[in-house]
Amino acid sequence: MTDPSSHRQPLSARRRPWAMLAFAAMLGGSGAAAAQQAPEAITLIGRGSSGSTSDLAFVVMEEAIKRSFPGQGVQIRRLPGTASAVPPRIQNGEAQIGHGVGESVVDAWNAERTFARRPKMRDLRYMGSYLGFLNKPSASPTMVVKVNSSIKSWADLKDKKIGVGPADSLTATMVNVGLRGANLSYDQIKRNGGLVHTGDWNQQMDMLGDGQLDAVFVTADHPSPIITQFAASHSARIVSMSDGVLKSLMDNYPTMTRNVMPGKTYAWQADEVVGVQLSLGYVVHKDLPEATVYAICMQLYSPRTAGIWGESVPGWKGAEKLTDRAAQTVFIPLHPGAERCHRELGNPVKTIAVGAEKP
Fold first, then answer.
1. 336 phi and psi angles, rounded to 5 deg
2. Topology of domain 142-277, per CATH?
3. Using CA atoms, how far apart are residues 193 and 213, in angstroms rounded to an integer?
4. What pLDDT band is residue 17 in, cutting at 50, 70 and 90?
5. Domain 4-136+279-345 in CATH: superfamily?
6. Cα–Cα dist 105/236, whole Å
7. Of 55, 94, 186, 359, which residue has the fewest beta carbons closer than 10 angstroms?
8. Is the peptide bond before 141 cis (omega within 30 degrees of 0)?
9. Banded model confidence at residue 13, pLDDT cuts 50, 70, 90
């Protein structure tokens, strides 16, 4: 199916209400003065299922925009979209701020894997990490089963019915990669009589509860609202990764690191769970004015205002202590406004993947 966004006019040919700060920046106004002028509208993309990491991250982002331009009535438009949908819609200017999953964005930058048949998406820039996500264990993609399930490892999925989120989500891709470490694949599971179901995570958790699925994979920080809600009415268990599955993921995704969810992260979870942690953060279009990005970045990552993470998402309380990690996994080049923000705040910048490349 042809991506409808490919028929849109080039960014330069469209009206960009979010560029209203450009004139002030060109005049050389100070960051504080320039930031007082608000963009007319900003479009966000990447909100997933209710309670998902991307949903929570954009609750914070919306509040950061409002606080950056108080009383100025910035129109915030929200577009749903998986990690794979974000890069092309940022690239073509349909949205200005998006949910950035390291590997997905790097693949778009390099025109690899999911984006192999598209031009390289070099209009993407990085702002900073999701501090709330860093404040909690991830161990993703996390496999959830019922407590009495016969599934004890990824190898036990050989003929089972599994839910992997939306078809174009990074979770769906990651699970298939991880399965290689257990000598499995989606195709093999199907040949063995199993099922690979794609769709909304909340719907898949309902299907797990009803017995229509044997396992569901979720990518989130923990405790996750999606899993907590499921466990409120069903006895749940989380399945850890073997070394083979972990190695398969980390060999294929250089922005991922080993991560452990401690026992009792959920009251019913006795043992630690091994998985990977993704590099997650906000990506923006390169033409979003420097003053706009600077103002939002300072709202998110300055120690004086970083309480916004826990104030917007109660489960992320304490994330304000992690401001020095805001630029520790820069997987594409920083936007100039973000670069200035992190430099002034003294945040260490660590580039991974293609983060150090010249724009």
1. -55, -35
2. D-Maltodextrin-Binding Protein; domain 2 (3.40.190)
3. 13
4. low
5. Periplasmic binding protein-like II (3.40.190.10)
6. 33
7. 359
8. yes
9. very low
CA 166 to chain centre: 14
**How far is residue 319 CA from its own chain's centroid?**
16
* The predicted structure's pLDDT at residue 113: 85
Q: How far apart are CA 216 and CA 141, in angstroms?
A: 9
- DSSP letter assigned to residue 8: S
d(CA 286, CA 53): 24
CB atoms within 10 A of CB 25: 20
Q: Which amino acid is at 278?
A: L
Residue 335 and residue 332: Cα distance in Å, rounded? Answer: 9
Tokens of 308: 């916004």
The pLDDT, as a whole number, for residue 52 is 80
pLDDT of residue 51: 76
Contact 264, 270 (CB under 8 A): yes
Instruction: Read off the tokens for 27.
Output: 């005049």
* 74: CB partners within 8 A, 6+ apart: 38, 39, 40, 41, 42, 65, 66
H or E element in which residue 208 lies: helix 201-210
Q: What is the pLDDT of residues 236-282, one digit of tens each?
A: 999 999 999 999 999 988 788 899 999 999 999 999 999 998 899 99
**pTM for the whole structure:** 0.75
Judge contact between 112 and 323, C-beta under 8 A.
Answer: no
What are the φ/ψ torsions at residue 199 (nearest 5 degrees)?
A: 160, -165
Residue 7 φ then ψ, to 5°: -95, 0
